[in-house]
Design goal:
Elements lengths: L1 H22 L7 E13 L7 E4 L6 E2 L4 E5 L2 H14 L3 H25 L5 H40 L2 E3 L4 E6 L13 E16 L11 E6 L7 E8 L9 E8 L10 E7 L5 H9 L18
Helix pairs in contact: 2-4, 3-4
């Protein structure tokens, strides 16, 4: 009887240890990671056509709104020139304004003569009708000019669609077409954003809940590059991979001087999870001078 009780106690102890082991698993100080571009854009044209010029080579740095490529646009350029010529024409409007002014003067003169019974009522009616017609013609000419200006705007926007511009700051990673080739259903270039970079980390489930967005971390690229770089947690995947017992965390790594590049392996060490209560207390103490900050080396320090 005594041996049975001891056996049951030992079984309960082993069961408790087995239950506690995952919760008390050692948290690794550093985790493996990979540095990737902050964004990758396969840039294409909004319209189909033949590529006339490509202004970049692989490895070139481009900024937002830089001209990357231009499609053949001879007909569209001619349409802009034609619309612009129509939009600036003023001769018809000036002529109708002179005609209308003459009609008003003639109408006033005949009205004075009609009061003295020197002209007939039919003559007065004819002059009034001609004046109204001249007024309506002038309004029509002004409306046509406005339509010509809108046509110029439409032609200009159509021409703009033949120019392909960069939507981001980044590096040309790949060229897909050359001048003379069609861009139908094909990207023209690939642009990789390297400021900021994205750091992808696969984290064991034992650290679930210990990493939050906004938390600081130190990234150490592989030995060929070296250095210590401060980064910030951007996304914490809320879904755990049951097969591997891991989840993903994405960090943003500022790279304003472009010292780093994508495709590097690295190691990352997370700072302690921020304490919301301590942060609230620090915000309330406006006279405090020693504002806490992570005691990590700046970018590039070893």
């Amino acid at each position: 009887m005594k041996n049975r009780v001891i056996t049951q106690i030992l079984m309960l102890m082993f069961a408790a240890l087995a239950f506690m082991t995952p919760l008390q698993a050692a948290v690794p100080e550093q985790l493996d990671c990979v540095i990737e571009p902050g964004m990758v854009v396969e840039l294409s044209s909004r319209i189909d056509g033949i590529l006339e010029s490509l202004n970049v080579e692989r490895g070139d740095w481009v900024e937002v709104d830089d001209e990357i490529a231009r499609l053949e646009s001879g007909a569209e350029s001619a349409a802009v020139d034609y619309a612009q010529a129509r939009a600036v024409m003023e001769a018809e409007i000036r002529s109708l304004k002179v005609s209308l002014a003459y009609g008003w003067r003639n109408r006033r003169r005949l009205s004075e003569l009609h009061k003295k019974e020197l002209v007939s009522a039919e003559e007065i009616d004819r002059v009034k009708t001609e004046t109204r017609i001249a007024k309506h013609k002038l309004q029509q000419a002004e409306e046509n000019k406005r339509l010509a200006e809108l046509e110029l705007l439409r032609a200009s926007e159509t021409l703009k669609r033949h120019t392909v511009r960069s939507p981001i700051n980044g590096v040309i990673a790949e060229r897909y077409v050359d001048p003379g080739e069609s861009v139908e259903d094909r990207p023209i270039v690939k642009i990789a954003q390297i400021d900021p970079l994205r750091v992808e980390v696969v984290v064991p489930v034992s650290m679930f809940g210990q990493i939050v967005p906004g938390q600081k971390a130190i990234v150490r690229p592989e030995a060929a590059i070296g250095g210590r770089y401060e980064s910030t947690v951007h996304i914490v995947d809320p879904i755990i991979n049951a097969a591997s017992g891991t989840y993903r965390v994405t960090l943003l790594l500022p790279n304003p001087e472009r010292k780093l590049t994508s495709g590097l392996r690295c190691e990352v060490k997370f700072a302690d999870k921020p304490n919301p209560q301590a942060a609230t207390a620090d915000k309330g103490n406006i006279n405090r001078a020693d504002k806490p900050s992570p005691s990590y080396a700046r970018s590039g320090e070893s």
